[in-house]
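Issue: ligand-bound run for JFT - logging full I/O for the record.

Environment: standard queue, default settings, no custom constraints.

Inputs:
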Amino acid sequence: MKLDIVTIFPDYFAPLDVSLLGKARQRGDVDAHVHDLRGWAHDRHRTVDDTPYGGGPGMVMKPEPWGEALDAIVPPGSSARLVVPTPSGRPFTQELAGAYAAEPWLVFACGRYEGIDARVIEDARSRMPVDEVSIGDYVLAGGESAVLVMVEAVTRLLPGVLGNAGSAADDSFAPGRMEALLEGPVYTKPPDWRGRPVPPVLMSGNHGAIARWRRDEALRRTAAIRPELIARNALDDADRRTLSE
Ligand SMILES: N#Cc1c(N)n[nH]c1-c1ccc2c(Cl)cn(Cc3cccnc3)c2c1
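Outputs:
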């Protein structure tokens, strides 16, 4: 996968060089590049913002630097999808992360201030698919944190990145039977810690009993914390018995 990120804070993306994503980059599984938008701002002060037409608080990101940046990064006719974080975007979900993981090339536009001049998105839509996406119902100061979240959620789904292909498939919101159950508790050594034992079933070696216990814990946790997700799952009689306890 090819990733391009445009931002006025390139240092925000130093985390892309660590952990699993860093290894994926070193292996060449992910070809990621971070671009400083100010490289396409040509005045002495590298200005990227100006006052909003119609008045109002704050500043708006000028269209010219963005237009030149996207022209330079995405040549006409190439196959990039532009993803623009915005508080008013469609929700970023595990399903969307899965769709993005199948894309050959994602370009992320990180805005700041009160947002990017709307004509930038309009112009980009004339030559590439554009998604305006929000990572949640809270307010950030810009798009960088959202892009870090989306890049992590997407690249961990790429083959070989996790190093354990099965774990992405077992995610709380991965497609499949447990597609919307919250993760249950996990344990590791020691078997007893501060007088707190690991649930014996997990050391029984009975894989059927372990799977049932894990699903029951996921059902109980989901019913307690996100009851609205229960209906999104295909429940069997054993599940319904657990939830009725
Ligand atoms: N994704 C997402 C997301 C989220 N979930 N919260 N905030 C954002 C987000 C994304 C992009 C920008 C850009 Cl560009 C500027 N701001 C600051 C701002 C704050 C309030 C109103 N207008 C602009 C952004 C906030």
